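User: structure tokens for this one?
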Amino acid sequence: MHDSQLIRRRLVIVGVSVLCLAGAIALAWWQWNRYQSASGTWQNLGYVLQWPLFGLFPAFAFWRLRALRRQHERGTGHASAATRPAESESDDPGPAAASLPAPTAPESEEDAELAEYNRYLAELNAKHERESR
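Assistant:
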């Protein structure tokens, strides 16, 4: 992405975030006036507190997406052969598993648990395939 496109994109993101926040503050002000009127209820006061959170959400979403993108960019392509689990030559999972991509090293404990569970499911599938022949 070119620098001018990047700057333009960031300005649009900031503009959308500011516009959403300004709109939410206006709606909160409107609900505050409704709360202070004779027909105002506690629900209107709840909206007064809720609208600014809605206005801040786009800025949070853009921030979170950017953080996830950076995390993904750091995590791709860094798994070496030394960190991959060793494959056993005696366990032949069958032709269906041969087309599956090679497992990569898990990045966190949760990923390690998921990888272990997926290995267990692959073993069960291979066992089922051998028994059904």
